[in-house]
């Protein structure tokens, strides 16, 4: 699956589960780890896990089975490594604490077309 298609499916899944403050960065040429980095917040630990499950379900529907999840059911931060796309899902407090967006300031922040319902 192309990296951009994987990114689009990821953003769609996050938006469907009402992830908050979704940001995506194009890191091609800036990072050797992935082409895209995504970050979002969840209002609760339960929502955090629902977002991660939605992403996994969405990519499975499209034949993408190559991924790894870091964190556990008690974590306030889960990372999904899908190769070309890395997703960080935080509770709001954990996101504020870690401030990962600062690490990606050399990347291009993408404009996202999200449903506004």
Description:
- With 117 residues, the protein is an alpha+beta fold.
- Helix content is 32%, strand content 26%.
- It has a six-stranded mixed sheet.
- It is globular, with a radius of gyration of 13 Å.
- The termini are far apart.
- It holds the Pfam family RsfS.
- It comes from Lactobacillus rodentium.
Fraction of helical residues: 25-40%
Number of helices: 3
Compute the gyration radius: what is it?
A: 13 Å
Q: Care to count the β-strands? A: 6
Mean pLDDT: 92
Q: Ends: how far apart?
A: 29 Å
Name the CATH superfamily assignment: Beta Polymerase, domain 2
Q: Overall 3D geometry?
A: globular
Number of domains: 1
The second-level CATH architecture is: 2-Layer Sandwich
Which fold does the CATH topology refer to?
Answer: Beta Polymerase, domain 2
Structural classification: alpha+beta
- Outline the low-pLDDT stretches: none
Quick description:
The protein is α+β, with helices and mostly antiparallel strands and 117 residues long. It contains 3 helices and 6 strands; from the N terminus they run αββαβββαβ.
Any chance you could write out the topology, listing elements then pairs?
Blueprint (H helix, E strand, L loop, with lengths): L2 H14 L3 E7 L9 E7 L2 H17 L6 E3 L6 E5 L3 E7 H7 L9 E2 L8
Parallel strand pairs: 2-5
Antiparallel strand pairs: 1-2, 1-6, 3-4, 4-5
Helix pairs in contact: 1-2
